[in-house]
Design brief:
Blueprint: E1 12-18, H1 22-38, E2 47-49, E3 52-58, H2 62-74, E4 85-86, E5 94-95, H3 98-112, H4 120-138, E6 146-148, E7 157-159, E8 166-168, E9 174-176, H5 183-188, H6 193-202, H7 212-231, H8 236-249
Antiparallel strand pairs: 1-3, 2-3, 4-5, 6-9, 7-8
Helix pairs in contact: 2-6, 3-4, 3-7, 4-8, 7-8
């Protein structure tokens, strides 16, 4: 889903879709439901007006970003999967380990890249990342799979104009490692550092802490690959840089 328009004066975000597009929009509503059922003030409901479904919010401030980080850790990321880890809707599957789940997510994206010469290095190194880096970084983790937003960049966050509370929307939810939800927020910026500090105050970095940064690079790689698949080669260079960094660090 494209990011909603932003009004310059008030940073007002309005996400709309015609009701006639309900079959297309339904997956977004279905993804929101688990989070909204748990914490309705954080996940907004849609409103119908003049034949359209509408959400309205303003951008995050430093204060609401801090509150969002705290609530993400204490609320959404405490909702645990029943014993298994779920991969996102478009490539459904249940896995017994986070390592297997994430490796499959990367594999699915590599398989969707066009078989063009310019992607040969990306494909080869992507497979090397799956074989070497994913087991190295993810196999040692002792974690419970939690409900993730899945697409938590600044365009999918906001502040409720009436309550002043942070809200999140337009998810691509699945169950996985909570730290994976922070990756795309770092890639595109726009979410204040207070969000990350508040999150980790409530949800400490997973051991081994010394590999936290490299895990972040691995989780960011997923989004760079996903954007390469969706939008073309402009993101492939960033994906390749991440792969090279991870492969150099891997014993």
């Amino acid at each position: 889903m494209d990011s909603p328009p932003v009004a310059a004066a008030s940073r007002l975000r309005i996400l709309t879709t015609p009701i006639t597009m309900s079959s297309i929009f339904l997956p977004y509503l279905q993804n929101i439901e688990p989070g909204r059922a748990l914490h309705p003030s954080t996940c907004p409901s849609s409103q119908s007006s003049s034949g359209k479904s509408t959400w309205t919010s303003e951008g995050l401030t430093i204060q609401t970003a801090e509150l969002l980080g705290e609530r993400l850790a204490k609320e959404l990321h405490t909702f645990k999967s029943p014993e298994r880890i779920w991969i996102r809707r478009q490539d459904n599957g249940w896995f017994s380990t986070w390592e297997e789940c994430f490796s499959t997510m990367i594999k699915n994206l590599l398989q969707k890249l066009p078989s063009e010469r310019k992607y040969v290095e990306l494909l080869n190194k992507g497979e090397e990342v799956r074989k070497r880096v994913v087991p190295w970084l993810l196999r040692p983790l002792v974690i419970d799979p939690v409900l993730l937003h899945g697409d938590l960049w600044s365009g999918n966050t906001g502040t409720d104009r009436k309550t002043g509370q942070p809200v999140i929307f337009d998810p691509s939810s699945y169950y996985g490692h909570g730290e994976a939800d922070l990756a795309i927020a770092r890639i595109f910026g726009g979410i204040p550092e207070s969000f990350f500090a508040a999150y980790h105050k409530q949800m400490p970095k997973t051991e081994p802490v010394q590999q936290y940064g490299l895990r972040g690079d691995l989780y960011e790689l997923y989004h760079y690959l996903n954007h390469t698949v969706l939008f073309g080669g402009g993101y492939s260079g960033s994906a390749l840089q991440k792969m090279n960094k991870l492969l150099r660090a891997c014993p």
